[in-house]
Amino acid sequence: MKTVNSLSGGKTSSYIAMQYPADYDVFALVTVEDKKLTPNDNGLVNRVSDKIGREFIGTVESDKTLKVVLDLEQEIGREITWVAGDTFEEVIRKKKMIPTQMARFCTTQMKFEPIFSWWYRNLGETVKMRIGFRLDEFERAERYNPVAKYRLSTNTFGQKRNNWGKVKWQIGEFPLIDDRLTHRDIVKFWEGKGFDFPKSSNCVGCFWKSDQELRQNWEEEPVKMKWFSDQEKKWNANFKLHRSMNEIKRIGLQSSMHFGGGSCKSEGYCTD
């Protein structure tokens, strides 16, 4: 059975790639259409465009993530497959709403589905999928769903409706839990190795991040955080239930912040 490492560009999943070689390493990138988020590095833009097989404009993930995944490929000596689904704006337009803590479709459509589509086109047989859940976040492994619901067709007996199928396409493996590794172990491993990881992996404005982490991201990634704030204003809704991104911008800034400790509740493909 083939093995696949699911990568995010953060310390934990990059550790998986380094320490647990697989047949395939796959990274799903969240893209956007807003040119204000285009990296100020034409070489990086061109390399990412080549990787995803289409024009790359920008992302609401840290630009450091892009560089980490490219550098990681050189370090491990294996090709990392990049996949990308619809842009974040297109996902929102199709849903006619922004994703929220009550309507959590963003990870599914921009992380899970692109990886599944890649698997469907290229493999088509059950794989062992390695996910970077650590011992200090074992509850995420308990929620992991190996079954994918996918669209078989859009016309059923002449009617314009989706015909859905289900397939158990993967067997989840959690080597960090098996080897009893925590966030502290991962941080120690990367000390002195020269990788410039983003402080906050995955989408900088993810609603699973704490208010204080989002507040810190206003300092680290103001243009990307403004994108999230602009979407809230445009759709008259908040990504987080209790306050808007603009309100979070105005809260007090904590002098010392610990990132990546394992508070995320997303299921599946967003890992530190």
What does this structure look like?
With 272 residues, this protein is an alpha/beta fold. It has a single domain, classed as Rossmann fold, CATH 3.40.50. Helix content is 39%, strand content 15%. Strands 3-2-1-4-7 form a five-stranded parallel sheet, sandwiched between helices. A two-stranded antiparallel ribbon has the order 5-6. The longest helix is centred in the middle third of the chain and has 17 residues. The protein is globular and about 50 Å long.
Keyphrases for this structure?
two-stranded antiparallel sheet; alpha/beta; 39% helix; 15% strand; disordered C terminus; 11 helices; Rossmann fold; 272 residues; 7 strands; five-stranded parallel beta sheet; globular; single chain
* Fraction of residues in β-strands: 15-25%
Instruction: Tell me which CATH architecture applies here.
Output: 3-Layer(aba) Sandwich
- The CA-CA distance between the termini, in Å, is 26 Å
Number of strands: 7
The whole-angstrom Rg is: 18 Å
Number of domains: 1
Most strands sheet: 5 strands, parallel
Sheet with most strands: strand arrangement: 3-2-1-4-7
What is the CATH third-level topology name? Rossmann fold
- Low-pLDDT parts are 153-159, 266-272
Number of helices: 11
Assigned CATH class? Alpha Beta
Shape: globular
Mean pLDDT: 89
